[in-house]
Design a protein that fits this description.
By secondary structure, the chain is an alpha+beta fold. It is built from 10 helices and 14 strands.
């Protein structure tokens, strides 16, 4: 309150103001009354104009960090919720159907390796889903040497929905990851056979080897030729019309193991355990077994092999990715159906000196040793 206002207030109380001064002063008093009413109605209080500036900055920083934390926690909550929902949706996507998608992808990998890798039938593919519609399939790579199965590596394939990436292959251990080759009949000799190597190996060893024939031989005849020999037939290489066209050496053989390639719909239900629930019965466990097979029944081997090629034909793009090549299965199937089953070689294993005796046979062509191991034969 300044001195001029005090003077006018005292003159107003004493009635000493002129008419003009009185009118102006009363207007000023009315303004003050209006200000007072406004302040009282809104609860506004006069603040000290000398608030500490440092304190204001602290309050401002605290407010900013609080806002940032709230934003971060909100974002984290959204991500967590989306991850949970995605996990459930991913599991539902890969378990849909009968057989479900995960089983189909697993079978593609298993059966592709079975018909393109002489040891591919050993083991099985495991699958694990991951959030955001991903699935990883892992398959061990094994080899048979005598009576022993040795893990030599593994292959991984990743899926996003139903799209498969190119697989990753890793080899390890002392066992070689170099794949021997077959030589197509009547294509000449390379003089690269390992007969001399077998002669140098001691008595107490076993080998696995790729044996090429001097001529094409049907499946039944192959079983007859090896009947009574102290060795095992591991895999039959099949002439599918592509072999021998681009040279004598066959780098990518196709064939089948010495026992049938059974599929899920071939298996026989042996037992089933069910449990009653609120929504009816549900299956807890099932037991299955494969159909009976007599060693040497080539008709069963042929039937299951063609069934496998037909299955892979429906998923050929994925099979091609696994091999980094085009299988052209429709042409191969047609060739086999028109020309029958003929073999240009087999993969065998057994005692070194027993395998060496094959050198004397006229129907035997080249032999390339795959692996050698200490004695583990039956």
């Amino acid at each position: 309150m300044n001195n001029e206002f005090k003077r006018k207030l005292e003159a107003y109380e004493k009635g000493e103001l002129s008419d003009g001064e009185l009118e102006d002063f009363e207007k000023e008093l009315e303004k003050l009354e209006s200000y007072q009413e406004f302040l009282e109605e809104n609860g506004t209080q006069v603040k000290d104009s000398n608030i500490n500036e440092t304190k204001q900055q602290k309050i401002l920083r605290r407010s900013k960090w609080k806002a940032r934390l709230q934003t971060a926690f909100t974002a984290l909550g959204i991500i967590l919720l989306f991850t949970i929902i995605s996990t459930f949706l991913t599991a539902g996507y890969y378990s849909w159907g009968k057989p479900d998608r995960a089983d189909v992808f697993r079978n593609i990998i298993d059966q592709t390796l079975t018909v393109t890798n002489p040891y591919g039938y050993l083991g099985g593919t495991s699958t694990n889903t991951s959030p955001f519609f991903g699935l990883e399939a892992v398959r061990d790579l094994n080899k048979t040497i005598g009576n022993e199965t040795v893990k030599v590596g593994e292959v991984k394939a990743k899926f996003f929905f139903s799209m498969m990436s190119f697989p990753e292959q890793e080899y390890f251990g002392n066992v070689s990851n170099n794949t021997p080759t077959f030589l197509y009949p009547r294509a000449g000799e390379r003089n690269l056979s390992d007969w001399k190597r077998l002669e140098q190996l001691p008595e107490g060893t076993v080998v696995s080897a790729y044996l090429s024939f001097a001529e094409l031989i049907d499946t039944e005849k192959v079983f007859q030729l090896f009947d009574g020999r102290d060795m095992d037939l591991i895999w039959f290489a099949v002439d599918t019309g592509f072999e021998g066209k681009d040279g004598a050496v066959i780098l990518e053989p196709i064939g089948f193991p010495s026992y049938p390639i059974w599929h899920d719909d071939d298996m026989i239900l042996d037992s089933r355990e069910e449990e009653e629930g609120l929504f009816g019965s549900r299956i807890i466990s099932e037991g299955h077994s494969s159909p009976e097979y007599t060693v040497g029944d080539h008709e069963v081997l042929h039937e299951q092999f063609l069934k496998t090629l037909t299955f892979l034909q429906n998923h050929e793009r994925k099979a091609n990715k696994l091999l980094f090549e085009k299988l052209e299965l429709s042409k191969r199937i047609q060739y086999i159906e028109n020309n029958g089953f003929q073999h240009y070689g087999v993969v065998i294993t057994g005692p070194t000196k027993e395998v060496l005796k094959l050198q004397e046979e006229k129907w035997v062509g080249e032999l390339v040793v795959d692996e050698v191991s200490f004695w583990n034969w039956r």
